[in-house]
Amino acid sequence: MGNIVVVMPRQEDANRVGDIIKRSDIWEEVVVCSTGADVLRLAVEQDISVVIGTKKYKDMGYEEMVGYLPAGVKMLLLTKDASL
Question: What is the pTM of this model?
């Protein structure tokens, strides 16, 4: 099972979500970041199973980032937008 990555534009928010996941003992490795480029770099360097994030990051939107992720990486989008 690969790592889980939490990406949000505010590092504090990403840390909070990451801490919740870590405390739950659901996943062994949780990495937090604030840009889509960080996620894509991690996808090359590490085994990633799931990315949890919002619609927009400091450098791109989730649609663009998902388009660059390796096959098999799942995206959990956290949003209030019911149309998605």
Answer: 0.88
Structural contact between residues 8 and 14, judged by C-beta atoms closer than 8 angstroms: yes
Q: What is the DSSP string of 5-71?
A: EEE-SSHHHHHHHHHHHHHHTS-S-EEEESSHHHHHHHHHHS-EEEEEE-SB-SS-BHHHHHHHSPT
Q: Quick one: which of 55, 54, 49, 10 has its CA closest to 33?
A: 10
Residues 56-75: pLDDT tens digits?
999 999 999 999 999 999 99
Q: How far is it, in rounded angstroms, from Cα 79 to Cα 76?
A: 10
Residue 81 has a pLDDT of: 77
